[in-house]
Amino acid sequence: MAAATVAGADAAAASPEGPDGERLRRWRLVLGGGEGEGTGRALAGRDAAMDAALGALYGGGPAGTGRRSGERSAGLGGSAPSVARWLGDIREYFPSPVVQVMQRDAIDRLGLASLLLEPEMLEAVEPDVHLVGTLLSLNKAMPETTRETARAVVRRVVEQLEQRLASRTRATLTGALDRSARISRPRHRDIDWDRTIRANLKNYLPEHRTVVPERLIGYGRASRSVQKEVILCIDQSGSMAASVVYASVFGAVLASMRSIATRLVVFDTSVVDLTDQLDDPVDVLFGTQLGGGTDINRALAYCQSRITRPADTVVVLISDLYEGGIRDEMLKRVAAMKASGVQFVALLALSDEGAPSYDREHAAALAALGAPAFACTPDLFPDVMAAALEKKEMVGSHESPAQP
After folding, report:
1. CB neighbours of residue 51 within 10 Å
2. Contact between 249 and 170 (Cβ < 8 Å)
3. CB 308 within 8 Å of CB 341
4. Best CA proximity match to 350, nearest among 387, 378, 388, 317
5. Helices 144-180 and 129-137: crossing angle, nearest 10°?
C-alpha cells in the first residue's frame, strides 16, 4: 500500500537526479529507512516530510508487531490535533485519490474512527464514499455537535455523485422507457426507422433500390403517467456501506423521473421503507443503520407485498446474499416474483471495488432461477437498469459482470 501511495505522489516531488536517483528515492520512501533498507539514500525537505507522513501510517503498525530497531514506526497519537496536522500534511503532499486511500487505511489500521466524531476532524478530511460509509456506521454514536458537520460532509459527496451519475442515468432510462413503448401504427415523427427497415428487408426492391415498409415500428409517445415501478432493496450490513451510498443516490435520481415509481427499502434483520425520504438522499443515508444481521427473506416478503403491477416492475436486490433468514423461502419468493412477470436482478455490490465476499451458493441458486447475480459498478448501473426495464436478457452471473 505504501508503494502504491508513493507511486501516486510522483507528481508531487520529481527527482532532479535522473532515472537512477528517482528509483532510489522511490525505494527509500517505500522501505522507510533503517539499517537494512540498503538504498543509502538520505531524504531532506519535502521528501522527508512525505516520508514522515507515510511512516506515521504504514511504518510499523500496532505495538508488538516485531519491527526491528531503527525502522520507522506507525502512530498518529491519540489526540485530534496530531491527526488533524497529519491530515493536512497528506493533503499537501499527495493527490486527492491517494489522500482518500490513506485516510481509509488510517481508519482501518490505526482505529481513528472515533476521532471522526469531532467536528474539527471532519472539516479536515477529504470526503469520499468510504468516509461516508464510516460516518454512517458511527451515526448512532454521533453527538449533536458533530451531526450537522457530518451531514455537510455527506452532502458534498452525494452532490459529487449526482453530478457524475444523474444526467446519464436519466437519459439512458428515458431511452429505455421509450423503446419499451414501441407501437405498430406510429405517426411519421415517431417512426423508429432503423428497426422498421430491418423488419422489412424482405421487401427490398432492387430495381428501385428501396424497401417497401409494410410494417412500421415506432416509439410510443412520451407518457406523463407512471410506466414502470422500481424497488431497490438494499442490504445495510456493514460490508455493503459503499453500495448503500450509491444506491441511495440512484434511488433519488430514479424518484425524480415521473415515468418511474421508485421505492427504496433497506434491511438487516428488520425492514425499513425510506421511500418518503427519496427527495433527499442525505436523509435516506442517515436513515440507514449499517451493521447487524441479514434477513433477505423478510425484506423480499415486504417488497413482494408492495408489487401491484408485476409485469411493469423491476426489483433490484443489492446484497452479498449471506442470508440469516429462511433460505428456501427466499428462493421461493424470487421464483414467485419471476413467475408473475417481475424483472428481478441481484447485485452483489454496487461500488467501484467489484464483488466483495458473497454467498456463492445463493448466487448460483438465483442465477438458476433466471435472476442474474453479479457485481456492478455505478457507471454500469444505468445500462443494467435500462436492460431490466426493456426486459432484455442479461448475459452474466455471479462469476462475471452483466452485459446488457
Report:
1. 21
2. no
3. no
4. 378
5. 120
- Alpha-carbon distance of 320 to 389, in angstroms, equals 23
Exposed/middle/buried for residue 212 (C-beta within 10 Å: 0-12, 13-18, 19+): exposed
Whole-angstrom distance, CA of residue 106 vs CA of residue 85: 14
Helix axis angle, 381-389 to 241-255, nearest 10°: 50
Phi-psi region of 13 (alpha: psi -120 to 50; beta: other; left: phi over 0): beta
Distance CA 254, CA 389 (A): 12
Distance, in Å, from the CA atom of 138 to the CA atom of 135, rounded to the nearest integer, reads 5
Task: Please state the φ and ψ torsions of residue 390, each to the nearest 5 degrees.
Answer: -85, 0
Give me the amino acid identity at 16.
Answer: P
Query: 294-327 in b/e burial notation, b at 16+ Cβ within 10 A?
Result: bbbbbbbbbbbeebeebebbbbbbbbbbebebeb
Please classify residue 115 by burial: count the beta carbons closer than 10 Å to its beta carbon, then call 0-12 exposed, 13-18 middle and 19+ buried.
buried
Per-residue confidence in pLDDT tens, the chain, 404 aa:
444 444 444 444 444 555 667 777 777 777 766 655 666 777 778 888 888 888 888 875 433 333 333 444 456 655 555 777 787 788 888 888 888 888 888 877 777 777 787 787 788 888 889 888 888 888 877 888 888 888 999 999 999 999 999 999 989 898 888 766 555 566 676 677 777 888 888 888 888 888 888 777 766 554 456 689 999 999 998 778 889 999 999 999 999 998 899 999 999 989 999 999 999 999 999 888 877 788 999 999 999 999 999 999 999 999 999 988 788 999 999 999 999 999 999 999 998 877 678 999 999 999 999 998 999 999 999 999 999 998 887 755 444 444 44
Asked if 199 and 217 count as a contact pair (C-beta separation under 8 A), the reply is yes
Residue carrying C-alpha cell 537512477: 20
Cell of 358: 458473497
C-alpha to C-alpha distance for 224 and 257, rounded to whole angstroms: 10
126 close to 96: Cβ distance less than 8 angstroms:
yes
Contact 330, 359 (CB under 8 A): no
All cell numbers assigned to 373: 447475480
| Cα separations in angstroms, 344 against 173, 300, 310, 385 | 17, 11, 11, 11
